[in-house]
Design goal:
Elements: H1 2-19, E1 23-30, H2 36-46, E2 51-54, E3 71-72, E4 77-78, H3 88-104, E5 111-116, H4 124-127, E6 132-137, H5 140-148, H6 160-176, E7 182-186, H7 191-207
Parallel strand pairs: 1-5, 1-6, 2-5, 6-7
Antiparallel strand pairs: 3-4
Helix pairs in contact: 1-7, 2-7
The structure holds adenosine-5'-triphosphate and magnesium ion.
């Protein structure tokens, strides 16, 4: 069963490699605290010339009037998990610009662009740009435990995880389940194990064409 799944992924990756130009866009999404940024950072270190776009950089600033409609009186906070709390169109624009620049480079080497964030695969224009798509999952308890060790800006209000983060995540997972090209990774595994899986898919993609930049 596992072998068949792996074979199918390998075939999919090889078919995709034939359609690729000199850019490979790798989408990394997942539960909050599943290890997305850790993986993106490790990929950046392994792939010289690689660039990464993190969704966190596209949050609206606290105080922005566009957040007003997202205030949740029950949680006494804004719903930061909602797409309207982010400048998603700007993120799509920036990634497209980067792809275009790399393609115009006409380099024979393949450049890797990482797109990372908790809901990037649910935003269709962004998901459509990704050649490889990963979603890291962790269970609720691990997620909550890891999140408690972090300090966000603005910080989580009491009950924010239970009232907003987890229900929004469950809904998000439901929304993306029809995308059959998403590979689900286990966030309880070591980040190096997941890194190696992604690196081997990337290598498989670019081997057919040329080297990685
Ligand atoms: N595979 C792993 N096993 C155990 N702990 C991990 C693993 N990956 C990341 N962590 C830890 O979990 C926490 C969150 O990691 P990271 O910032 O990479 O997650 P994230 O998915 O980007 O979170 P966020 O939702 O804040 O964007 C960190 O404390 C990190 O050290
Ligand atoms: Mg992160």
């Amino acid at each position: 069963m596992m072998f068949t799944l792996y074979l199918l992924t390998a075939i999919k990756v090889l078919v995709m490699a034939k359609q690729l130009k000199n850019v490979l866009v790798v989408g990394i999404s997942g539960t909050t605290n599943s290890g997305k940024s850790t993986l993106a950072y490790k990929l950046l270190k392994h792939l010289p010339g690689c660039v990464s776009f993190g969704q966190d950089a596209y949050f609206l600033e606290p105080g922005d009037p566009r957040l007003d409609c997202l205030h949740d009186s029950d949680a006494n906070d804004y719903n930061w998990e909602d797409y309207r709390a982010l400048e998603m169109d700007k993120m799509v624009y920036d990634v497209r610009q980067e792809i275009q620049e790399k393609q115009e480079n006409n380099s024979k080497k393949c450049s890797v662009i990482i797109v990372e964030g908790f809901s990037i695969l649910g935003w269709k224009p962004l998901s459509n740009l990704c050649d490889l798509k990963y979603f890291i999952t962790i269970d609720r308890e691990t997620c909550h435990d890891r999140r408690k060790t972090r300090v966000y800006n603005p910080p989580d209000t009491p009950g924010y995880f239970e009232k907003i983060v987890w229900p929004m995540y469950v809904q998000h997972l439901e929304d993306i389940k029809s995308q059959e090209d998403i590979v689900y990774l286990d966030g309880l595994k070591s980040s190096d194990e997941n890194l190696n899986r992604i690196l081997s898919d990337i290598e498989m993609c670019v081997k057919e064409k040329t080297d990685i930049e």
